[in-house]
Every structure is written in C-alpha cells, then in structure tokens.
Amino acid sequence: MKAKKIQFLSRMATSDQPAEATTMTKRKAGAKEAEPATDTAEAKATAKLPGKIQQRKDLGTKASGAPKLSLRFILIPILVACAVAFWKVKFQGVKLNPRVLLDAAKQSVGYSAHEYEDLFAPVGNKYASDIVHIQTRKLLTPDATCGIPTVVTPEPVHVDVALGHAATLRATGNVFIALNGRDDGVLVQWQPKDGCLYELAAAAATALGSDPDYFPNGLRFYNSMGEPITTAAEVDADRLVYVLVDFQIWVWPGIKVGYTRNIDGVSLKTISLSPLVFDVEAFFDGKEADAIIAEGMNKLQRSPVDSKDATDGYHSDRTSYTAFLDDSAFTRDFRRRTAALARLPSPALSERLQLVRYEAGQFFRKHEDYFDSKDFLGKKNLAVADYKTWCEWAAAAIENLPADAGLDPAFQRDGPMFPNAEDTMTWQHSVLQAFLDDAAATDFFTEHADVEWGEWIKENVANRANGIVEILLESRGYMLPHIVASWEKRAALPALHYTAPKPPVSGVSHYFRWIRWTKERIQDLGADAPADVQPTGANYPTYRTTFEKKLVKFVLEDHTLEELAAIVGLEWAEWLQTNQDAENVLIDAARNSVTFFELAVNAWTKRAGDAFRYTIPTHLRHFEPNRFVTLFLYLNDVDEGGETVFPYSKERLVTGIKRSGMDECSEGLAVPPLKLHASLFYAQTPDNHVDPKSLHGGCPPAQGVKFGANSFTWNADADEGSQAWGFGG
Q: Where is this region: Disordered (predicted)?
C-alpha cells in the first residue's frame, strides 16, 4: 500500500498549471437520523499498536515523571491512554468503561476541556443565526438600447485561450464566456465602453446552447474564482467570465486534470473531469479531525440507505457505521467553510458533519449521494406518452411528404422504420437497433452511467422481445430524444426533424422556485421585512411539509368551500379541506393544477405584504431540493485500502486494486484515504441536474480502520430538504 500511496502522491504533485490567486475566502446515503446508539461490538482479533501510537505511549511514559507539566504535556499522556485503551478494547478484549474512554478521547484532541465544551455545546435556533444568511443573486439588467454582441468563434474553444491571457484578449477586443462549470466557451467582441452586460451574457449563452426562454428569469456573471460580478470593469479584469441562468448554483470548472487553484489557502486540484472530482488540501487540521472522531464515536450506528430494497432502512451494500454530529459551534463552522469553498449561496445548504467508520472488510458499494425515492413531479412515466406523441407526429409527417421526397422505403408505411406506436415488435426493434449502433459509436451508455441498461436493450433486441420501448422509457425517459435523433439521422430529411413541445410548467416547479425567490427577497429586505416572515418568524417560507400545511390553512381561511369550488371544482375543494393536515398536501394539489400554487402564493402574500408580489415565470426548468456537492474528509491514514472509487471516471491515480466483496474498487478512479485531504465531488451537473456519473463507493480497508466525515451539501436548505424527502431534519 505504501507503493500505491507514493504512486498517488507523485501523480497528485504533477501539474503544469499555476495556482490561481483568490480574493475570497445502487444505494443512497440515508439522511434519516434515528436516536444514536453506542456501538459496543468488540473484535476478538489481537493487534500490535501502530508505530505512531507506540511513540506517543513512550513519550507519555517519559513525560509522566516530570515534576512540572504544561497543559500540552498533561494532554499528551491522556491522548496516549485513550489510544491505548481504544486498542485494548478493540483488539485485546479488555473491558473498559465506554464513558471513561469517550471522556478521555474528548480531552485528548488538542482542545482544552473548556474549549471542547464550548465547541460542542448546544447552539440554539439555526434560524436566529448567520447560518441562514443568503448571498442573493446579483442579476444583470437588460438594456433595450443594446445591440447583439458578435460571437467570434463559430465553435466552442477551451478555456486555455483565456487563462492568463487577459492582456491579449483586451488587445483584440474579446472576452471569453462559458456556461456554469464548463471548460469550453466562446469568444465575444466586447470592450468596457460597450456595457450591455446582460446582452453579452445572453449572446454567449445562446451560442453555447442555453435555452433563451429561461433568460428572463435572470442572468448572472461570475469570475473564475466563483465570485459574482456586475460591472464592466470586473469583466475587463480577467476577460474570462461564466454565465449562470435563473437560480443555478456555481460549479467549479475542472479546466484539466492536474489543474490547481488556491482558495483562501485551501488547495483545490482537479483529479477527474467526468465526473467532476477535486482533491482538497488544507481545509481542516489534525485537531479538528480528532475532534470529529471523538464527538461521533458514541453515536455510531449501522449506516442506513435510501432504497426500496432496504425494507428496514439497511442493506448489505452498506456495512459501514455512521453518526451525524449534533448542531454545535463546531459543526456550524464546518457548514460555513464548506459553503464558502463550494461557493454556495448560504451555509444552510450544508448538512451537519457525518462521521463514517469503516473497519477492515466494511464498505459502501457504489451509490449516488442524491435521492430519487420520491417523485415530486409525478412525471417519471410521461416519457411513454411523449414517445407515442412523437410516433403519431412522425407518421403523419411521412404521409404528408411529396412523392419525390426521396424517403428510404424502410421509413414508409409498412417498412420496419415507419413509426407506429402500436407495433411493439418490428418497429421497436428497428429503431432501438439504430439507437444501439449510434450509442456504441459514442460510448453513450458509459457517458450516461447506464451501462446495465445498455446491455438490457441489446439483449432484448437480440431476443426479439415484445414492448421494449415502454419498459425502457418508464425508467429511462431521458433516452427518448436520443432514440428520436437516431431515427432522424437515418431518415435524413429536414421535414422529419421533430421539435418536442415544451410541457406546461408544473405547479410543483413553480412552488419550489417561489420558496427560493421569497427567501432571497426576505434577505434583501432585511429589517424592512415583516417580523413574521423573518427567518425566526412563524410564516418564514421553508421546504418543510409543515409550511405546505400552513399555506393550505391560509387558503382555507381566505375562501369558503363554495368560493374554492368555483375556482378548482367541488371535488378538489373538498379534497383540500379533508386533507389539509396531510403530508405534501400542497405539492399533491399543485401537481394536479398550477391554480393551487397561485392560491397559496396569494394567501401568503396577503399576509406578508405587497413587497412580496411575485411574477410567475412563463418558462421554468424544474428544481427540487436535493444533494448537490459532497466534501468527504479523510480523518486518518489507513494501512491499506479504504479508497473512494468513482467507477465512471477514466482517470487513474492508483491501479491494481483488489478489495474483497467489492469488485468496483478496481474500476475507474480510486482515491486513497490520505489524512487531512478531502475529496470534493458533484452529485449534480453544471446545469444543476442530478448526475448518475457521480456514482461512487467506499472501498473496505484491507488493514486498519478508516475514519472519514461527510460534509453533504444541497441545492436548498439542507435540513428543510431532508425533511421534504421524509428523512427528518
């Protein structure tokens, strides 16, 4: 293992990129928190003390005879005693009082007893603290007098053309603009005197494929250090900017493997571009690592999972132990620091730290950190309906072609490629085979982290199975546009190109965005916002189901049953009255009709005041609370094993790994657990959609024990989002 760590460190140390300067600071990990239970299982194996522990023991023995001791030398033998006691209990079967052991541990992490007590004392209401402070969006302002800037590059170019080349870009009158988290962008003609920043952002974003329908919801500029910029002088400073649309959250661009940036003394080094993974150094210190272990040890319990296969909340795919640390000054500090490192708009988007312990042979098989066990939109099966709509359109378009259109006979009526939603055999096999051929050429299934589904399609097409498309799209609806594209490529007629109509925006999508907007509005108003909608107020908007119930009660207070019936119909009016105390009552209603969302917003605004008048967007990309980016801290060195593996990454830091019970440890990128390092990786894409390629696993230690800590973050308030998913929080 030493050779592998040397191999890893040598690769980590290799970079031809200068550090950037800074001006600022398949199973899901369950968020459900049961009452922590002390893990009292004792291993019967014996082991010698590691060299470092033995050295501390020897030092403690020497120090114990000194007549005068400083606090530092008093704590050293306590640390030694704690370490020795732990190993004796764990590996030699000696019976010790767990409370005595834990108390000793808490005194030996480098803090005085008073400091430790202050750090982990209860801290009260989160909403009365700076944790809920929001860095609100700094939107660019449209200017009707501005023209459309000229995009110089017909195709996207890599950010290398701009990094360190501000003077050249300034001399040529160009600025490099990319979308959030992307490494490719376009050059656009622009000089500071031109102004027109909104139009500059819109022109670049459109050229890069962003949907202009969403631009009225807000465009923002960020510099390469993830800081919002709003002036021509700021754009001119580096001539390298990123465009974020609506409420998108910043994603660090990877640039290239080996690229390193420095963020307030914290090193962020790219080790994989897809999925996006960074090695982090200097984010925390040894004293903090020891404190996390000491504080979480007595709360450790078997790790739960969010999976339909885990009927009791546990699964054989996850055998490690975890514990969420209590809300404290210590954990709040990590929430702030994690949010600052990831450039999140609020510390509230970070969860409390979660201690993780892997003993030899324990693991967490490949999984994503985001959740998908709940269908907020109720649209997971709509792709089948969209498929039938396309078949009907394509069939009609073929029938309307002129006789001399030159369409291949295979695409004409009764041909194998003629779209027919009722034909669940020949037509489906033909179009899916075309899709498979294209997918093989582009490595589609690997790129979309769906290799198993690719094999399933191939097998069922070969077996001439019936009704493959319906089964596929019920689970993998995102593949429909790619299937359509394969068909269009072979039909080779512009008249047969299909533009899928945008579905109406769900009331659920509107509801979640409105909460985002309202939280920001309250932050911007500050003391001018009414007391009852302030973060500590009774009517402060949250993602919790309790807030849904409150809104429904407001609606029922403002309308009689007859008035509601006139708006939504008697059946739904009675349903709302009957189910006003049910979980997700408003989401269930808004899923049926956007009118329920409008009723709820009007009822809340009536109480909050005209400063909260909300303009409902015409177009909207769906957002729902979910995990966004994970920062995993490595708290100790492991003798062998304990890697974090990303099976879909094509990068390699160490090779030749074999871990019993977990084959995926030999696949993809394996990050060794180096003490005081961390891995930062995104559960969502730069477009802020969940990313299946973020699949990862915790490999079992072959020797020793691995301690780590998750600092999970969300795209919304983490505690509220967890409760919205039904996990508490």
A: 1-60
